[in-house]
Amino acid sequence: MIKLYGMGLSFNVSKVRYCLNHLNLKYDWVQTNPIAGENRTPEFLNICPTGKIPAIEIDGFKLFESNSIIRYLAASNNSALYPQDAKKRAVIDAWMDYAAIHVAQALGRVLFNRVFAPMTGQPVDQGSIKVGLEFLDKYFPVLEKQLSQNQYLAGKELSLADLSLLAILDPCELAQITSIDKYPALKKWRAGLKSQPFYQKCYKDYSQFVQDAISAQAAR
Ligand SMILES: N[C@@H](CCC(=O)N[C@@H](CS)C(=O)NCC(=O)O)C(=O)O
Question: β-pairing, 2-6 with 55-58?
Answer without folding.
Answer: antiparallel
